[in-house]
Protein backbone atom coordinates (compact mmCIF):
# COMPACT_ATOMS: atom_id res chain seq x y z
CA UNK A 1 0.00 0.00 0.00
CA UNK A 2 1.47 3.33 -1.06
CA UNK A 3 0.73 6.38 1.08
CA UNK A 4 0.52 9.92 -0.13
CA UNK A 5 3.54 12.14 0.51
CA UNK A 6 3.12 14.05 3.72
CA UNK A 7 0.61 11.67 5.29
CA UNK A 8 1.14 9.05 7.98
CA UNK A 9 -1.15 7.26 10.40
CA UNK A 10 0.65 6.24 13.56
CA UNK A 11 0.21 2.52 14.11
CA UNK A 12 -0.13 0.55 17.29
CA UNK A 13 2.96 -1.63 16.99
CA UNK A 14 4.35 -2.63 20.37
CA UNK A 15 7.93 -1.53 20.85
CA UNK A 16 10.28 -3.30 23.24
CA UNK A 17 13.99 -2.96 23.84
CA UNK A 18 16.37 -5.25 25.70
CA UNK A 19 18.39 -3.53 28.42
CA UNK A 20 21.99 -4.53 27.66
CA UNK A 21 23.06 -4.25 31.29
CA UNK A 22 20.32 -6.38 32.87
CA UNK A 23 19.08 -8.42 29.90
CA UNK A 24 15.45 -7.56 30.69
CA UNK A 25 12.91 -6.40 28.15
CA UNK A 26 11.72 -2.85 28.63
CA UNK A 27 9.01 -0.95 26.87
CA UNK A 28 10.26 2.02 24.88
CA UNK A 29 10.90 3.46 21.47
CA UNK A 30 12.26 1.12 18.84
CA UNK A 31 15.82 1.81 17.79
CA UNK A 32 16.17 1.13 14.07
CA UNK A 33 19.70 0.48 12.90
CA UNK A 34 19.34 0.68 9.13
CA UNK A 35 19.59 3.84 7.06
CA UNK A 36 17.74 5.37 4.16
CA UNK A 37 16.54 2.79 1.64
CA UNK A 38 16.95 3.13 -2.10
CA UNK A 39 14.07 4.47 -4.18
CA UNK A 40 11.29 6.74 -3.05
CA UNK A 41 10.61 5.12 0.34
CA UNK A 42 10.38 7.27 3.44
CA UNK A 43 11.44 6.21 6.91
CA UNK A 44 13.18 7.15 10.10
CA UNK A 45 15.62 5.98 12.73
CA UNK A 46 15.82 6.69 16.47
CA UNK A 47 19.19 6.63 18.20
CA UNK A 48 19.76 7.10 21.92
CA UNK A 49 21.86 10.17 22.62
CA UNK A 50 23.03 11.14 26.12
CA UNK A 51 19.76 12.09 27.93
CA UNK A 52 18.30 12.75 24.48
CA UNK A 53 17.08 11.04 21.32
CA UNK A 54 18.56 11.66 17.90
CA UNK A 55 15.93 11.41 15.19
CA UNK A 56 16.90 10.90 11.57
CA UNK A 57 14.30 10.77 8.81
CA UNK A 58 14.28 10.61 5.03
CA UNK A 59 11.85 10.72 2.16
CA UNK A 60 11.47 11.46 -1.54
CA UNK A 61 10.30 15.02 -0.81
CA UNK A 62 10.36 17.57 2.00
CA UNK A 63 6.89 16.74 3.33
CA UNK A 64 7.54 12.99 3.50
CA UNK A 65 10.74 13.64 5.40
CA UNK A 66 8.98 15.99 7.83
CA UNK A 67 6.12 13.54 8.41
CA UNK A 68 8.48 10.66 9.18
CA UNK A 69 10.45 12.87 11.55
CA UNK A 70 7.20 13.80 13.34
CA UNK A 71 6.23 10.13 13.51
CA UNK A 72 9.57 9.35 15.16
CA UNK A 73 9.11 12.21 17.64
CA UNK A 74 5.77 10.78 18.80
CA UNK A 75 7.29 7.28 19.08
CA UNK A 76 9.75 8.67 21.64
CA UNK A 77 7.00 9.30 24.20
CA UNK A 78 3.61 7.76 23.32
CA UNK A 79 1.79 4.91 21.65
CA UNK A 80 -1.90 5.49 20.87
CA UNK A 81 -4.39 2.79 21.73
CA UNK A 82 -6.76 1.50 19.07
CA UNK A 83 -9.89 2.85 20.77
CA UNK A 84 -8.69 6.45 20.66
CA UNK A 85 -10.92 8.73 18.55
CA UNK A 86 -8.88 11.57 17.04
CA UNK A 87 -9.92 15.19 16.56
CA UNK A 88 -8.29 17.76 14.26
CA UNK A 89 -5.86 20.48 15.27
CA UNK A 90 -4.97 23.00 12.52
CA UNK A 91 -1.34 23.69 11.78
CA UNK A 92 0.44 26.54 10.01
CA UNK A 93 4.19 26.98 10.30
CA UNK A 94 6.54 29.40 8.56
CA UNK A 95 10.31 29.35 8.87
CA UNK A 96 13.28 30.85 7.08
CA UNK A 97 15.04 27.51 6.45
CA UNK A 98 14.08 23.85 6.14
CA UNK A 99 15.91 23.04 9.39
CA UNK A 100 14.00 25.79 11.21
CA UNK A 101 10.77 24.34 9.74
CA UNK A 102 11.62 20.98 11.30
CA UNK A 103 12.27 22.62 14.68
CA UNK A 104 9.02 24.63 14.50
CA UNK A 105 6.97 21.50 13.74
CA UNK A 106 8.63 19.57 16.58
CA UNK A 107 8.02 22.46 18.97
CA UNK A 108 4.33 22.47 17.97
CA UNK A 109 3.96 18.75 18.77
CA UNK A 110 5.83 19.14 22.08
CA UNK A 111 3.68 22.17 23.00
CA UNK A 112 0.42 20.30 22.23
CA UNK A 113 1.54 17.29 24.28
CA UNK A 114 2.79 19.35 27.22
CA UNK A 115 0.14 22.09 27.45
CA UNK A 116 -3.01 20.43 26.07
CA UNK A 117 -2.17 16.78 26.89
CA UNK A 118 -2.85 15.56 23.34
CA UNK A 119 -0.77 13.30 21.10
CA UNK A 120 -0.77 13.46 17.28
CA UNK A 121 -1.70 10.21 15.52
CA UNK A 122 -2.04 11.49 11.95
CA UNK A 123 -0.14 14.18 10.10
CA UNK A 124 -1.47 15.87 6.96
CA UNK A 125 0.96 18.46 5.65
CA UNK A 126 0.92 20.61 2.53
CA UNK A 127 3.27 23.24 1.16
CA UNK A 128 1.96 26.78 1.50
CA UNK A 129 2.46 29.36 -1.26
CA UNK A 130 5.06 31.21 0.79
CA UNK A 131 7.21 28.12 1.45
CA UNK A 132 5.73 27.30 4.84
CA UNK A 133 3.74 24.24 5.84
CA UNK A 134 -0.01 24.13 6.44
CA UNK A 135 -2.20 21.23 7.39
CA UNK A 136 -3.66 19.51 10.34
CA UNK A 137 -2.73 17.08 13.02
CA UNK A 138 -5.23 14.53 14.18
CA UNK A 139 -4.69 14.24 17.92
CA UNK A 140 -5.99 12.08 20.74
CA UNK A 141 -6.03 12.79 24.47
CA UNK A 142 -2.81 11.67 26.13
CA UNK A 143 -4.96 9.46 28.37
CA UNK A 144 -5.80 7.44 25.23
CA UNK A 145 -2.14 6.55 24.75
CA UNK A 146 0.36 4.35 26.49
CA UNK A 147 3.39 6.36 27.61
CA UNK A 148 6.69 4.88 26.40
CA UNK A 149 8.91 7.70 27.62
CA UNK A 150 8.84 11.27 28.87
CA UNK A 151 7.52 14.05 26.64
CA UNK A 152 10.55 15.78 25.11
CA UNK A 153 11.41 19.10 26.74
CA UNK A 154 13.07 20.86 23.83
CA UNK A 155 14.57 20.60 20.39
CA UNK A 156 18.32 21.11 20.13
CA UNK A 157 20.01 23.05 17.35
CA UNK A 158 23.13 20.92 17.90
CA UNK A 159 23.57 18.51 14.93
CA UNK A 160 20.41 19.94 13.31
CA UNK A 161 20.28 19.23 9.58
CA UNK A 162 17.66 19.14 6.85
CA UNK A 163 18.04 19.20 3.10
CA UNK A 164 17.93 17.37 -0.19
CA UNK A 165 20.87 15.24 -1.27
CA UNK A 166 20.94 12.92 -4.25
CA UNK A 167 17.18 13.07 -4.75
CA UNK A 168 16.41 12.16 -1.11
CA UNK A 169 15.35 14.59 1.60
CA UNK A 170 17.07 13.89 4.93
CA UNK A 171 16.91 15.43 8.36
CA UNK A 172 18.58 14.95 11.71
CA UNK A 173 17.50 16.51 15.00
CA UNK A 174 18.17 15.91 18.68
CA UNK A 175 15.34 16.18 21.23
CA UNK A 176 15.99 16.64 24.94
CA UNK A 177 13.92 14.32 27.16
Helix content: 10-25%
Strand content: 35-45%
Total E-strand runs: 12
CATH topology (fold) name: Archease, Possible Chaperone, Chain: A, domain 1
Instruction: Give the number of helices.
Output: 2
The figure for the number of domains is 1
Query: Which structural class do the helices and strands define?
Result: alpha+beta
**Mean pLDDT across every amino acid position:** 83
Largest sheet: 4 strands, antiparallel
**SSE order, one letter for each helix or strand:** EEEEEHEEHEEEEE
- CATH architecture name: 3-Layer(bab) Sandwich
The CATH homology group name: Archease domain
Uncertain spans, ≥5 residues at pLDDT below 50? 1-21, 23-34
Instruction: Enumerate the strands of the largest sheet in spatial order, edge to edge or round the barrel.
Output: 1-8-9-7
Radius of gyration: 15 Å
How far apart lie the N and C ends?
34 Å
CATH class: Alpha Beta
What overall geometry do the principal axes of the alpha carbons give?
globular
Helices and strands, with pairings:
Elements: E1 7-9, E2 16-18, E3 25-27, E4 43-49, E5 52-59, H1 62-77, E6 78-80, E7 87-93, H2 98-115, E8 118-127, E9 133-141, E10 145-147, E11 154-165, E12 168-176
Antiparallel strand pairs: 1-8, 2-3, 4-5, 5-12, 6-10, 7-9, 8-9, 11-12
Amino acid sequence: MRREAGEYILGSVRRWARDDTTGTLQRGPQVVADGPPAGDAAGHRLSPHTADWMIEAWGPDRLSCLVDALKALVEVFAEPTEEAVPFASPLSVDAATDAEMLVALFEEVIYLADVFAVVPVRFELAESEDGGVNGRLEVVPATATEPVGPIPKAVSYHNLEMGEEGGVWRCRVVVDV
